[in-house]
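Help!! Second protein's tokens look totally different from the first
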Amino acid sequence: MGTTTRIELFDTTLRDGTQGEGINLSVEDKLKIARLLDDFGIDIIEGGWPGSNPRDEAFFRRAQQINFSRAQLCAFGSTARRPDSIDTDPNLNALLQAETPVISIFGKTWRFHSTIGLGLEDDENEELIYNSVEYLVEKGRNVVFDAEHFFDGYKDDPSFAIAMIQAAKKAGADVLVLCDTNGGSLPDEIARIVQEVRNQVQAPLGIHTHDDCSLAVANSLAAIREGAIHIQGTINGVGERCGNANLCSIIPNLLLKMGLRTQQRIDLRRLTSISHFVSETMNLFPYNGAPFVGKSAFAHKGGIHVSAVMKDSRMYEHISPETVGSKQRVLVSDLSGKSNIRYKIDEMNIDLNDDEELAEKIVKHVKSLEHKGFQFDGAEASFELILRRETGEFSPFFEVLDSSVQVKYDKAEHTAADAMLKVSVGGEIEHTAADGVGPVHALDNALRKALTRFYPEIAQVKLIDYKVRVLNEKQGTKSRVRVLIESGDEDTSWSTVGVSENIIDASWQALSDSLNYKLFKAHLLPVPRPRRRSTALAEE
């Protein structure tokens, strides 16, 4: 393939992607993602299957009011049910009613599906494909023909599979997309078959792969190497079963590794934010280990690695993180050396005045804590507080002098908890109490209640995530646990950690760090306020 070839990007996040387990998008969600993909530079956005459900019908009605500046919207469906009822077929006419400039339809290219699934003879299936494509072309639509199960069909009977896509080509399809629908093919098979198809069919070819063997991206790129010019996938690889080919990996590989060009300009610096936006909209946790866009994609933990990337990041990074809108991260753990600490110190703008003894002290302290079960590569806010405390920049904004928690159960298996606290802020004592659905919730409520009049900013802090990990399972209920808390406000988020044999104490450590971090970042000073009557314990 010449370097002047421009690849057409076809996104099916809003259709095939929503078939993934646990994924559910509202009409408004789909419209937001469609606008984002349009602005990003995707060529064709497959919005759904009109006629299959009311939500997709509503999406296409709403989408007609949007002027997409770069992308073409596409409706998806199947060929007609019978070759002799094309113009009255409800599926084809629902596709036309969506009023999209592009329509993608799938047809059977594996005889196994044609004969067993549809009960059609070979010539009937060929006629069905031809008539369906021709009908849509005559109505003025650009047609993308998805050759369903093509690679399995070709391996079973090449002549049948070729005859079916030739029918679509003769009927006027703009591109023939070869689909690895079951996701079971290998890259060398994909490459060989695409090459053989190119020698027999003179038409633009596309590729659509699934990730059942964890090869969807590799298979897609193999097809492009052999001359396919249209590539289908989803943001973050979401989709049925193991997912679809991941456009967040495909696009940077096309541009940065293969030296190819897309039909429209893609700003790769937006890739990470788009990936995270789609995850957030789908209510999915972003996969930290995702190539290019994952939180860990450019994270370094081992001391030797960190020492190297501080000299030249190319030693352990295949591209510059900023190219895809990400950033380099250095983690702190028991694998850390002074290089890690130095990196984090520089990142946080902390001045040690070249105090090597202090740096060594911090390294030993961190390793000691990690040996006890602390984990700072997922709790950087707690680590920053350790650094700031060592340099004298931070001291706690409050001190809990006394606390007690009572948990109540009833026969209906309802639980409730009451917490009482005695808190000192700048020498002033505050007594308070609060209830909650559990002991940690009650303590959180009580602490916020005690601190609010001193530090009203903590009202902005919301709990985003709470994780508990048992560290030495063989000890049973006496096991040490690690609690990771992710908190956030309207601007940012941060994570803190606590470790103890007592889950309440571990939670308390992480919770205290979370609020202290918020107050430290707000540049508040723990100065005593005028005394007033302490909150009555019965006051809720």
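Here's the second one for comparison:
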Amino acid sequence: MGNNRPGETRAAAERLGGVFQSRSLGMTLFRYVVRHTLRPSLLAFAALTAALFARDLLGSSNLLINQGLAPSLVAKILVFQLIPLASQTAPFALAIGLFVGLGRLSGSLELTAVETCGVAPRRLLGPVLFAGCLGAMVSFALSFYGVPWAARGLSAEIDRVATQNPTITIQPGVTLDFGGWKLEAREASADGRSLRGVLLFIPSVGDTIFAERGRVETQGEGAVATSLLHLEAGAVLRRAGRGVERVEFETLETQLPRPAAGAHREIANPLREKPWAVLAAIADDPATPALDRHRAGLEQHRRIAAPFAAVAFGLLAVPLFLHLGRPQGAGGAMLGLLLILAYYGLVQFGEGLVYGGRLAAWLGAWVPNGLCAAAAGLAYVIHARPPRTAVNRSGRRAYVGGTTRLRIRRLALDRYVARTYAKLTATAFAVLFSGYLLTDVLERLDWFERYGATVPEVLHFYSARAPLLASRMVPMSFLAGAALTVSQLALRGELIAIRACGIAAARGLAPILVVAAFSVPGAFVLGDWIVPRTNARADEIKVSEIKDGAQNQRNEVWYRAADKLFRAEALNAVLGWAEGLSVYEIGANGLPETIIDAHRATRVGDSGVWALEDAIEYRLSTRGMTEQPAPTRVDLGDDDATVTDTMHLGAAELATLIGEAEADGFDATRFRVDYHLRLANPWACLVLPGALVFLALAVRSLLQSPALVMLAAIGLGVLHILLTDAAAAVGYGAAVPAAVGGWGVVAFFAFASLALASRNFD
């Protein structure tokens, strides 16, 4: 490589400050390499953490605007969520940053200059391993001290807020559990206090209370706070022998029980909250079940082994980099990504052996680090591949009849910029999606183990969940790709060359916007067609395959599907039987019109149709009750479909839901906001790269440092998420039209981009 570009090699040596002739060669080179590997690692850490933290930011504006929580409390909750995420992304970022930094040193011929001065490439191990140790120290502090503290704080704050303000979790169509009481409302205000179409199941009553309107009031503060539920224009069902009476009421007031601790957290790892000493005591207690001891031991050693993944990546970085031909740019980032995937594949393998009783907990936690160290030692023994030599491809010419025919490429600049942007966007997506996927898997490991999920079940679940994770990373990937493209063109001096040819810089970067614009239909198809269907499938797999593997029979099942309410004293979805089944058909006024009581029901085949045994149907009205023959079969629907989850619905289905709700006299504001958000979100793939490109061109100082461009991209991404969340919250509260709540942020970024673009074309 150095023989092809001797002038550049000489310049690279001069950039090192002439240190190759000084006695302080080792220390100067050491600091130089550390600085140039830590810098991309910090950028990767910021980008990964910001992108993955986006999911935790969603809903924070609703807590501030509609639920009235104090900003300090919301900020505290976000910090508690950020610390565990940062502890997981730190090793990811270091692995990617090490290879990107080494590739940048190789691409600028500085490594060639080092070799020319007689320094062996393997001496890079020292500074790279030092960078890994720094990353391990930071990750260790977060994992060993920060994560348990944050987990305890988050649990306490969520339980305290949910206890003092239970309306924080009330949403239309969502069934909530208050100490065994079941509450659902067809319509709920933005703050969750005003309800319509209310269903309330009280175990002591033994049946459901129906009401047209409801209101929740909180009395007192702190531990003595109580929540009163006021119901209006409703009816209470009362069993009388084999009959049913509907007793109507004008007003009814009852006190809601306190929700159980942790009831508002679907996925919780209680071991994460425990100190090291408590985990050690659980792991060594012979009276504790073996599986619980394995879990405690893994959590105990994982707090140390996981941070030291950064050291393992440092050991492997240099030999892999040298053996694989010194990849540069996107190739370096992909190599770091593959290393991360391989490492966490070993993590899964080690934990599986521990849970299977084949390995001790400490050995299973440290297996990935040990194998990485062994692989690094083996790689140092084997000779590395020589660096790839540059090839002058432009010198190839075709001769026809003794003349040289030069092929002129049309739109060469546009094709080059578009190709660079597409490649870097794909790389950014691979990195962000893989980091998101790994983080999601790590968070659910204990949940999978709790329900005894097998590897095929986990793979089946993530085959359906992957499109959702991908859809959340697509806009950020296009934004990161634009930042990387602008940085690369500026770093290589190609933007200067573009302007030197009389082409405006904005015109030269226009292919970025063209590629981004073509991605909008694909993003819409992914978010509106694929994700709703795969989300529904993932929830079905979670319920039918994973959860039912551990808890087949449930007592006091209560759920609603469309205009029917189902209640069963006991239900076994796997074996397909139900006892004490009642099916309520709800009328337009929210009150029951017919009830079907069956002593027992059995599922017919694999369908949702169940055969009824000893069934009676009652028709209710203000004039009394009439008994009539009951059907022999009924469709029970999906007992996990208690939530009208808009993430399971496409735009067309949302429009249908809006029409049905408004036809029944209910407010569909929340659904309308979600509908417009569904249409607007794909355009973020265009407006975010556009805003970044024109911002970088308007503030030319950004082009002087790739780090500044990446930080600007991170800032724009976080700002977009916060504004989108805030606009949706304001829309839910009906303070602005639903269309503004959905499209306002996209319009803001579009107008900002146009304003910045006008400055560049003046």
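Reply: Different proteins will give different token patterns, so don't panic. The two ends are 43 Å apart (CA to CA).
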